Amino acid sequence: MNASAPHIEVMRSQLGRARGLGAGHSGVGHWWAERVTAASLLPLSTWFVVQMFRLGGADHAEVVKWGSKPVNATMLIALIITTFYHAQLGLQVIVDDYVHGKAHLPTRLLVKIGTSLLGLLGVIAVIKLFVRGSAAK
Amino acid sequence: MQDIRKALYVGSRSDGRLIQRPMSPHLQVYRYRLSMVLSITNRITGVIATAGAALGVFWLGAAAKGPKTFAKARKVTGNPLGQLVLLGWLASVVYHTVGGIRHLIWDSGYRYDKKEVNEDGPVAVGVTAGVSTVLAVGLLAVSICRKRSRAKAGKVS
């Protein structure tokens, strides 16, 4: 902080200045969403670890066969969406904590766009794998 | 406009004089505690877990694209450097899960006293190390077994 005497720079109350800069009513929803996605990821990622034991060292044909099963495709998409949603919520908190000033908004948007695109890419890949496996039958 | 931190730094005393609010001491003045390392590690492993999930998406994308691209992906996951990255991802996900479960327990109102937090810390480290080792060795064993049985059957790669 600067060493000059404390002073208020704008003709506005401190509360008024702070309003609209913080969580602004959205904090509780964010907190809950983070917990609910975390709890959902426990069974989903356990399922994924089990699947990796089934697929360890598998070749392409085996992976395609695995991906063509509706249950596997469904669980994968659920896992991907929940993972990247949870990642978005978590990374947002990190950005809020460490990135201040003008860089804050663009960084936050970048996190949102990045995690959303990665999640979408994952979903499309699962669908493509599913279609590929179904067509091969 | 300044950011919220600065906006809230100037306060007024009861006599109306403006003062700079006190700042909390910075990180390096505190004595080292395991709990503070575990706390920041939960964040760092969260970021690593996200990066790993991104790699996982590319792995799925490679499988969706076709055998040639998937063969390339298997070259990455099959070589020692790639497996070191996978191990890092695995350990990060395991720790983030253990840390996350602790957070859910704290949120429910349990194990949050100083004594309990200090008791659970080493347990979290132990569980992470144990589970990560078991999973890593297990997965490696499964893939080696599959490789051998494929070699016996005479299939290529």
Q: What is the number of E strands of chain A?
A: 0
Largest sheet of chain A: none
Report the major sheet of chain B: 2 strands, antiparallel
Kindly report how far apart the N and C termini of chain B lie: 61 Å
SSE run of chain B: HEEHHHH
Describe the global form of chain A: elongated
Strand content of chain B: under 5%
Ranges of chain B where pLDDT stays below 50 over 5 or more residues in a row are none
Give the count of helical stretches of chain A.
5
Radius of gyration of chain B: 24 Å
Mean pLDDT of chain A: 89
Instruction: Identify the CATH class of chain A.
Output: Mainly Alpha
The CATH superfamily of chain B bears the name Fumarate reductase/succinate dehydrogenase, transmembrane subunit
**Spatial order of the strands in the main sheet of chain B?**
1-2
Give start-end ranges of low-pLDDT stretches of chain A: none
Subcellular location (chain A): Membrane
InterPro entries (chain A): SQR/QFR_C/D (IPR034804), Succ_DH_anchor (IPR014312), SuccDH_FuR_B_TM-su (IPR000701)
Pathway (chain A): Carbohydrate metabolism; tricarboxylic acid cycle
Keywords (chain A): Electron transport, Heme, Iron, Membrane, Metal-binding, Transmembrane, Transmembrane helix, Transport, Tricarboxylic acid cycle
Description:
The complex is a heterodimer of chains A (137) and B (157). Chain A has 137 residues and is mainly α. Helix content of chain A is 76%, strand content 0%. Chain A is built from five helices and no strands. The model of chain A has no long low-confidence stretch (mean pLDDT 89). Chain B has a single domain (31-153), classed as Fumarate reductase/succinate dehydrogenase, transmembrane subunit (3 helical TM bundles of succinate and fumarate reductases, Up-down Bundle). Chain B is elongated. The interface between A and B is large, with 52 and 54 residues. Chain B: One of its GO terms (cellular component) is membrane. Chain B: This is Succinate dehydrogenase cytochrome b556 subunit.
